[in-house]
Design a protein that fits this description.
CATH class of the largest domain: Mainly Alpha
Shape: globular
CATH superfamily of the largest domain: Butyryl-CoA Dehydrogenase, subunit A, domain 3
Strand order of the largest sheet: 2-3-7-6
Number of domains: 3
Helix content: 40-55%
Organism: Conexibacter stalactiti
CATH topology of the largest domain: Butyryl-CoA Dehydrogenase, subunit A, domain 3
InterPro entries: Acyl-CoA_Oxase/DH_mid-dom, Acyl-CoA_Oxase/DH_mid-dom_sf, AcylCo_DH-like_C, AcylCo_DH/oxidase_C, AcylCoA_DH/ox_N, AcylCoA_DH/ox_N_sf, AcylCoA_DH/oxidase_NM_dom_sf, Mycobact_Acyl-CoA_DH
Largest sheet: 4 strands, antiparallel
Structural class: alpha+beta
Number of helices: 12
Oligomer: single chain
Distance between the termini: 35 Å
Cofactor: FAD
Strand content: 5-15%
Keywords: FAD, Flavoprotein, Oxidoreductase
CATH architecture of the largest domain: Up-down Bundle
Family: Belongs to the acyl-CoA dehydrogenase family.
Length: 389
């Protein structure tokens, strides 16, 4: 990627910065970056209102084609937006699943009718989405899904269970991978369905985590329904569509994610100065390593986004293998620089400090969004050409 900013890019950055300065006030400013990974439960209603404000100002769907309501922003401008957004401490986006995952999938695989029906609701910030992928016995192994759907009388009838579904209780819709062909196995016979979440056939049970919060839920489908024309791609081609969504998952927003990481790292470094831990050579070296590795994450993301021909099909897996363990190590650093004080809850009965919550939540970073083991398999098979295990 050519990182030399043209005058129009600098003008765009100034526009983004000015808009955030003028609108990130009151309840929005009070959130101060809340709602990120591990904090999705925070300020839901305020963040929903913020999403609508972003939509009204045209900040959703920046890179979408103009004919679908986007601004047709360049890749560098999209990077600029996400960097400025994170640097301003704006709230975590409540509809990441809709804008960053489903919308690109519809643009690539959806029918004209599906685009016309769903893209406007995402652009306006009115309709929220969740992802129905993982199952109790098919977490990182998406091809092992057992939730099934049958097309009867013009409707899909869905039965099964999904798990670790982010913000399911707040979502209006879900994109759900199901098995649609009886007797099919693995990657064959899957369908990618768009399913309304608020219906009698769906039960949502929040999962309380080690942090004491419940951003994730189990979702049970019992004769749940959706219209027959809400299958993205042809029935039986759900695997191809689902892989497309996973590729979009590691898009431009990763640069914003890394700005959030940098804010966390700065906080940990400040704590190290406060506690005197910065004087310990081993901890100081770990902090320096974390700073260097975060720069590596950034340049790897830029190279991948730019479509570097040396970045092979498994580049998204490389990125996940880089940031997952890095963030987990940052969580360990956060409590180590606090010393023994990190072992005591911030308040009764189980109030956690930011550092404690970071440590506990990042235990999951190497598991969710595809475990490290699965990412290594993808790299081995798709990048290195090694035989399947």
């Amino acid at each position: 990627m050519d990182l030399r900013h043209r005058p129009e890019d600098e003008a765009f950055r100034a526009e983004v910065r000015a808009w955030l300065h003028d609108h990130l006030v009151g309840d929005y400013a009070a959130l101060d970056g809340a709602g990120g990974p591990g904090r999705e439960h925070e300020g839901i209603e305020v963040r929903r209102a913020w999403e609508r404000e972003l939509g009204a100002a045209g900040w959703i769907g920046l890179g979408w084609p103009a004919e679908h309501g986007g601004r047709g922003a360049t890749l560098l401008q999209q990077v600029i937006f996400h960097e400025e957004y994170a640097a301003a401490g704006a709230p975590g986006r409540v509809n990441h699943m809709g804008e960053q995952l489903l919308a690109p999938t519809l643009l690539a695989f959806g029918t004209d009718a599906q685009k016309a029906r769903f893209l406007p609701g995402i652009l306006s910030g009115e309709e929220l989405w969740c992802q129905g992928y993982s199952e109790p016995d098919a977490g990182s192994d998406l091809a092992a899904v057992r939730t099934h759907a049958r097309l009867r009388d013009g409707q899909w009838r869905i039965d099964g269970q999904k798990v670790w579904t982010s913000l399911a209780e707040h979502a209006d819709w879900s994109f759900v991978v199901t098995r649609c062909e009886p007797g099919s196995e693995r990657h064959k016979g899957l369908a990618y369905l768009l399913v309304p979440m608020r219906q009698p056939g769906i039960e949502i049970r929040p999962i309380v985590q080690i942090t004491g919060t419940a951003e994730f839920s189990e979702v049970f489908f019992q004769d749940a329904v959706t219209d027959g024309d809400l299958c993205v791609g042809a029935p039986g081609e759900g695997w191809k569509v689902a892989l497309g969504t996973l590729a979009f998952e590691r898009g431009v927003a990763t640069l914003g994610q890394q700005i959030g990481f940098e804010r966390e790292l700065r906080r940990v470094i400040a704590t190290a100065h406060e506690t005197g831990a910065i004087e310990e050579p081993a901890l100081r070296d770990r902090l320096a390593d974390a700073w260097v590795e975060l720069r590596v994450l950034r340049y790897n993301a830029l190279r991948t986004l730019a479509g570097d021909p040396t970045a092979a099909a498994g580049s998204a897996s490389v990125a996940k293998l880089l940031w997952g363990p890095w963030h987990r190590r940052l969580g360990e650093l956060a409590v180590d620089v606090r010393g023994v004080a990190a072992t005591v809850a911030a308040g009764a009965p189980y109030d956690l400090s930011e550092d404690q919550a970071l440590f506990l939540y990042t235990r999951a970073d190497t598991i969710y969004a595809g475990s490290d083991e699965i990412q290594r398999n993808i790299i081995a098979e798709r990048m290195l050409g090694l035989p399947r295990g």
